């Protein structure tokens, strides 16, 4: 298991990704809750709100997955000098 941080704050790549995923999931849930509150205040029907939340849930899941992939890519190359990191 690769340790990407050295010293008193070291952690494994898997642990760092778990924390990142938990944080991203929290942001997704907060965004969905904010959207729901806004739509309720604006008088949206239950069907309209659910439809919007379903669409936003799918978009946010894709965003979360892409963000996590980029975080993984960055952390996998944490110890490499910049000239060895291939940008995709």
Question: What portion of residues is helical?
Answer: 55-70%
Q: Gyration radius, to the nearest Å?
A: 18 Å
Profile the largest sheet.
none
Beta-strand content = under 5%
* Mean of all residue-level pLDDT scores: 84
> What is the global morphology?
elongated
Distance between the termini: 24 Å
- Total beta strands: 0
Give a quick precis of the structure.
The chain has 2 helices and no strands. The chain has helices at residues 13-41, 46-76.
Walkthrough of the structure:
The protein is mainly alpha-helical and 88 residues long. It has two helices and no strands. The model has no long low-confidence stretch (mean pLDDT 84).
Record keyword descriptors for this entry:
single chain; 88 residues; mainly alpha; 0% strand; elongated
What is the strand and helix layout of this fold?
Layout: H1 13-41, H2 46-76
């Amino acid at each position: 298991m690769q340790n990407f941080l050295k010293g008193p704050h070291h952690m494994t790549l898997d642990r760092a990704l778990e924390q990142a995923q938990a944080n991203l999931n929290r942001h997704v849930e907060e965004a969905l809750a904010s959207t729901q509150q806004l739509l309720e205040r604006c008088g949206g029907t239950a069907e309209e709100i659910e439809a919007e939340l379903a669409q936003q849930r799918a978009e946010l899941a894709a965003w979360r997955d892409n963000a996590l992939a980029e975080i993984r890519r960055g952390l996998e190359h944490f110890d490499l000098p910049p000239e060895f990191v291939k940008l995709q």
